[in-house]
Write a structure and sequence with these properties.
With 194 residues, the chain is mostly helical. It has a single domain, classed as de novo design (two linked rop proteins), CATH 1.20.1440.20. 81% of the residues lie in helices and 0% in strands. It is built from 6 helices and no strands. It has helices at 2-67, 72-91, 94-116, 119-123, 125-160, 164-171. Helix 1 (2-67) packs antiparallel against helix 2 (72-91). It is rod-shaped and about 100 Å long.
């Protein structure tokens, strides 16, 4: 009888151990799936706001062109950078998108500086509305980048933490890259001489 109780106890302990392992194993997997989905969703939000900017740029450039025929080099550059961003977006390469986004932001900053240098242009209701919309878009992009990077941080932390670190690589969960500012982005854009 004593041997039978010991055998039942061992079997029960093994079953409970397997149950706990299964809960941890699949719970960890499900957590990583949820975090990865969150990263993908946040990246989609960044893309949406970048697309909004992309769609807005021709309106800003055309309104500015009406007033500033001799500042065509900046307008041409912003248009070319917009095309560069669109090409990078089609590749789906986050580094290329990040680089093109940084270049486009530099060009837009120079355009904003030029616009602010001309009182008549600043006073135009069309231009004021477009610039306000562009500034709002830039704020949205900044917010979505921050949210994306927070989701990446949470995901990367979970991939590296025990017990997920034991299985994450085997399940195909690899570390994700943050959306980073372009090198030199901390410097303000140059102000064109009048």
């Amino acid at each position: 009888m004593n041997g039978k109780l010991v055998a039942i106890g061992i079997i029960l302990a093994i079953v409970i151990g397997i149950g706990i392992f299964a809960l941890v194993y699949y719970g960890t997997y499900n957590n990583l799936v949820g975090l990865e989905a969150s990263v993908d969703e946040k990246w989609s939000q960044v893309q949406q706001e970048l697309q909004r900017r992309y769609d807005l740029i021709p309106r800003v450039v055309n309104a500015t062109r009406l007033y500033l025929g001799y500042e065509a080099s900046i307008l041409t550059e912003v248009t070319a950078l917009r095309s560069q961003w669109a090409a990078a977006r089609q590749t789906g390469d986050a580094d290329a998108i990040n680089n093109a986004t940084g270049n486009l932001e530099d060009g837009l900053s120079r355009l904003i500086v030029v616009v602010e240098s001309y009182p008549d242009l600043k006073a135009s209701q069309v231009m004021l509305g477009l610039m306000s919309e562009l500034e709002g878009t830039e704020n949205r992009i900044s917010t979505e980048r921050m949210r994306f990077n927070e989701a990446v941080r949470d995901y990367n932390r979970s991939v590296k933490m025990f017990p997920a670190n034991l299985w994450a690589g085997g399940w195909g969960f690899e570390r994700r890259e943050y959306f980073e500012a372009k090198v030199g982005a901390e410097e303000p854009p140059p102000v064109p001489a009048d």
